[in-house]
Model the fold of this input.
Amino acid sequence: MAPPLSRRFLLQSVLLTVAAPGVSVAAGSGRAVAATVPTPPAWSVRPFELKDVTLGQGLFAEKRRLMLDHGRGYDVDRLLQVFRANAGLSTKGAVAPGGWEGLDGEANGNLRGHYTGHFLTMLAQAYASTKDTVYSDRIRYMIGALAEVREALRTGPRMLAVPGQFGTAQENVRGSYQYVDLPNNVLGGASAITLSAWVKPTHHADWARIFDFGDNTTRYLYLAARNASGVPRFAITTNGPGGEQGLNGTAALPLDRWSHLAVTIGGGTGTLYVNGTAVTRNTAMSLTPAALGTLANNWLGRSNFRTDPVFAGAFDEFNVWSRALTAAEITSLQGGRAADSSAGRGDLASYDFFETGGGTFADGSGRGLTATLRRTWGAPSHDGFLAAYPETQFIELESMTSGDYTRVWAPYYTAHKILRGLLDAYLHVDDARALDLASGLCDWMYSRLSKLPDATLQRMWGIFSSGEYGGLVEAIVDLYAITGKADHLALAKLFDLDKLIDACAANTDTLDGLHANQHIPIFTGLVRLHDVTGEARYLSAAKNFWGMVIPQRMYGIGGTSTAEFWKARGAVAGTISDTNAETCCAYNLLKLSRILFFHEQDPRYMDYYERALLNQVLGSKQDKADAEKPLVTYFIGLKPGHVRDYTPKQGTTCCEGTGMESATKYQDSVYFARADGSALYVNLYSAATLDWSAKGVTIAQSTDYPREQGTTITVGGGGAAFAMRLRVPSWAGAGFRVTVNGSAVGGTPDPGSYFTIPSRTWSDGDVVRVSIPFRLRTEKALDDPSLQTLFYGPVNLVGRNSATSYLPVGLYRNAGLSGDLLPSLTPVSGKALHYTLDGTEFAPFHEGSEDPTHAYVRRTEPKVVLGGTDSGVANPVNSDGTSLLDEIWAGAPFADKGALVARVQSTVTSWVSAGRLSQADGERVVTTARNATYAA
Done:
């Protein structure tokens, strides 16, 4: 366990933050005017803000446009519905998004609220990137609504007055957990009774109560709007469900329409009336309220059975009489208020809900039985709390020992998404209310978690799913960097999962069997903790963890996980299924790779960044516009013939959330700068223009990469001196060339490195040309070399074929002297990066189509074919699976045909000597090599 933060350390941290503030305050205004997160001194390179990098036309802009349209068109009141409902506020007629954001979705919507955080981040990034005020306007509207929600949660529930049958009515919005609490003597021990109510249900939920009077689940009487058969049911018992004397209706109550229900008991007969008509009678109903005595729980809209839903809908008049009304009196209640009927107002209780506010309802019976509006979860929320559900999930987590997302589904994960969205709203739109909400939420978390023993915290964070907290630590540290509040830093450290941190710091791989996305973002948070605490184990753990996943548990497209979990180190082929590569994992691995690069400029981090961004992340977004759905995958199945699902799991999933974010920040890692401004890193080749205001220059890339093999970089402005470091991809072979104003830059570009243009004073109009020839290559699954995935430069090519077994593919037949396998494929006219092989079209993974695809193929080279000429000799294979052709082509690139023939001769000689190839067959292979013609 990490040692507790000392008072001196906290003070030093606060002073450091104050010395490099992330927020300035206008004199007398009390609000932020320059929102930034201070750059940690530990970062040797630093990113630029989204607003400083503009995407030009190209693949990334095409994908982003689809998500921008979604951000512009989606009704944000739908996102706010779950928050407003939880606070008992008007939802403005909006329908909850559904899926993970709906009470009918997976695990009863226990994750609701997370998607709103994602959406805020998406809007904030969209505004930062485009300056289109439609996005900032939407953010400000949402922040204002969330501020109202937090305020409402801090008070007791207030009446939500809506038009009633005869006047006003009290509405219980679904998800509000509200009910009306009546005094415990409301039934008055009557031996005969009538209970009458006007209700307008808004949702069909079995066993939701119109009223329920009881002590527990043994002694009670209730009227449910809907039983398991879908019809109203009244029951009374002194011996639990098995002793119920009941009345069942004959038809379901309609939604969104007023219905009148009444129950009478007298003389041993019970009758249920619906809209003035007696629909059922029970002449053996011997129980009356007198048999129940005084009951503790007397509720409208809530059940004595804990798992039953709260009634969703509106209540108009509710009356209780100490006698059984006649049929005629029941009929008279249909035409107007009870006070104007022949029955008159109830003599035991009478509520007309004519109030227009407040949290109490007057009793018109003359008994003074004032009713009170309450929440099922009790008292008002604590200061700072903001969520789309009560504090109960957070409370229950503290006593859990194993995960059960139907009870508790990652409340701190949801808190992270909300916090991140608020921070991004503040940072990009400069809405001070967002910072106040973010800070308050963290204050609330600290007040709760700081009181728990460390053993409880360690147990909580180790629980699958329920204890997941996503990237919360990173967000909290970012907030701390802005506020300088010691409690915020202390809060971030309360999420240390020591078992995981210590294992990774020691480079001990314990990932087998862990939920991937629960753990990846933890390490980004650890790097941020290292930034502000200097604790070495945090950074060491993150670096070592990255190496346990990349490439040990990575698929070719850059994704990881199968059915959300990791398997053993090196298991790739053995894990391929239709549930690979959860999209969130790629999103979080990109964030981790990026922040690790800030500390150590290991080109592997940016090589991975290009791989995952250009393939999985782009490919997870369908190439289709939709205002209602982001159209992003959850899993990307890699099994043969898989068709991507862009509308997963009923919607509003975590992956759709991170997908929205990814699509509005494609430019965030194109350029970085050395911390001292001495060098510019060009990490990604993309049509993007940097406004480097500190240097007074712009850096503009003009390219259609990856449909173009290189980029042209033009410097605008002049007089600034700096070096330019250009990433040489690990896959780049001979031919990577750099010129400045047409003159070649000296030096040898090494694959998997950065090529440096030495520092110079740049002039306006200087042009850097980078040429990056692509070639077709394969990457082998770590646990099955015959299972391979195809890459053309950075682009993963997938076969479009409905077959459900691996496609057999041979690629050496027309391989070029450079080792490029592309000549074995045939280009498709008019379709960039599309090729055919043996009747199957291969296309870029990044294309978001619904074609059945083959991301992996079965490499099969049965014959020795060179330069398109079949030698007639079977391709022999070593005990390790390496074939004769593999060994020959491992020597590529070849300077000329003679060099290739020499390689063939030496390899054949070795194999003949080892007895793996006959002399005659060896001669045929060499002859074929000499006579064949090869592409360059």
